[in-house]
Amino acid sequence: MTAYPTVQMLINGEWTTAGEAGTMEVVNPATGAVIGHCPKASKAQLDAALKAADDAFAGWSRTSGPDRHTILRRAADLLRERALDIAAVVTAEMGKPRAQAIGEITGSADVIDFLAEEAKRRGGRLIPTRGTQLIAQMVTHEPIGPAVLLTPWNFPINLPAKKIAGALAAGCTAILKPAENTPASAQLLVACFVDAGVPKGVLNLVHGDPGPIAEHLIAAPVTRKVSFTGSTAVGKHLGALAASHMKRFTPELGGHAPVIVSKNADVERAVALCAATKFRNAGQVCVSPTRFLVAKEIYDRFVADFAAMAAKLKVGDPGADESVDMGPLAHARRISAMVQVVADAQGGRGEVVAGGAAIAGPGFFFQPTVIANPAPDSRFMTEEPFGPVAGIVPFDHLDEAISIANGLRYGLAAYAFSADLDEAHHLGRSLRAGMVGINQLIVSSPETPFGGIGDSGFGSEGGEEGYLAFTDTKLVMLAKARG
Ligand code: NAD
């Protein structure tokens, strides 16, 4: 593979390998081998990044939208040009099969393109005035200020790309703190922006322990906006901190997406799509379809076909074999989480019909797993598994399925399959989630908003919302100078 790069931080336009708070190991989850070391930022280095973002804000926020657009489009082109090399690093750091890594990277370039266009085309609005004295009521979207971007490892290019492009397109400066286990992926992405001409200080990259770094950056007076993708528990903690400092906060958190399969669905197509999508990225996807609620009439066939497809998937080291369907989980703690979920579904509280066990090392592998009829109060049915485990539950009436689907506090994605038009509309309206997919399992594109409700967070990034998330709404009311 492409050699693993020396991991660096970017502070005020300077790349540095010097982590004043030490270093940490980067491990390939498919082999368990240490592939590199990542510098950890000290408080002084975080303060230098904050100062850089603050100093650069005046100039970048005044750079014209078309000029910001030109630079961001160039970054997207560089990302496409470098996709194959970057994909090798993504695979080595978090275990995604190569084809999925390349798809993530080229898709991220499309996201950057869309947000770059927003810099050029997004205006405000003029509101009709009352009376004769007022001339205009103008609403504009002003860049909010320096933004702190906290991203996880499961989409180590797409999530930082969406946040960086939204922030920079809107005229904000940013400090990116990526996940500890995917620092080089983030670095290669940031390098595309730098090489495209983003001025020094506009985009900064720091690494290290997520808790103390997030707390320092959020509390800093310079920071005006915090964008976080990760677990609900961490999101609530950071949200409370952001609120205590009156900082704008966009959390994109966990999910436990239900999929309702009606007896009127094209069952063959539904099961093939569901089984393929569930195990993408080893199930470590916040919108992963996971709780399958299937009409009694088609339940046995759905379970048998789903289990057979899961059992056929080729699991292995995607860095060594490009033909594997599913790689490792990102780290050892995800394996323990899967073991606990499966153990809880034993003993009459569900039936494991495919997989169910960790695969002996090296690396952090778990079998693609299917649990038939997990108990309503099982861990599987109540907690986000965030891994390669699916559960399938039979239902008698559609309303019962909708009630189970809406029964958790999560509300990120939800899906339904039905070839009956009225039923499909009813399902689309009834499912309580930020994003609903009907007769397909894709709920994101560069043009569309992405976000959840309830314990899955609030606000959206992606689409025009991904630009507006980094702006303040401002009203200017202009009156005649003389009566
Ligand atoms: P984790 O909560 O330890 O880490 C998840 C991410 O949050 C990491 O990128 C980490 O850098 C960051 N993080 C952790 N503690 C933090 C803190 N105190 N302050 C700021 N950032 C912090 O969990 P994990 O075991 O690595 O991942 C599994 C869990 O994370 C799942 O429950 C899943 O919900 C969640 N997750 C969600 C997404 C998503 O796309 N919404 C992505 C990755 C992980």
List the helices and strands and how they pair.
Elements: E1 9-11, E2 14-16, E3 23-27, E4 34-39, H1 43-62, H2 65-81, H3 83-94, H4 98-121, E5 125-127, E6 134-143, E7 147-150, H5 158-170, E8 174-177, H6 183-196, E9 203-205, H7 210-219, E10 225-229, H8 232-244, E11 248-252, E12 257-261, H9 267-278, E13 289-295, H10 296-312, H11 332-344, E14 351-354, E15 358-359, E16 365-366, E17 369-372, H12 379-382, E18 389-395, H13 398-405, E19 410-411, E20 413-417, H14 421-430, E21 435-438, E22 453-454, H15 465-468, E23 471-479
Parallel strand pairs: 7-8, 7-10, 8-9, 10-11, 12-13, 12-20, 13-18, 17-18, 20-21
Antiparallel strand pairs: 1-2, 3-4, 5-6, 6-23, 14-17, 15-16, 19-22
The chain binds nicotinamide-adenine-dinucleotide.
Nicotinamide-adenine-dinucleotide is lined by residues 150, 152-154, 179-180, 210-211, 214, 229-231, 234, 238, 252-254, 286, 333-334, 384, 386.
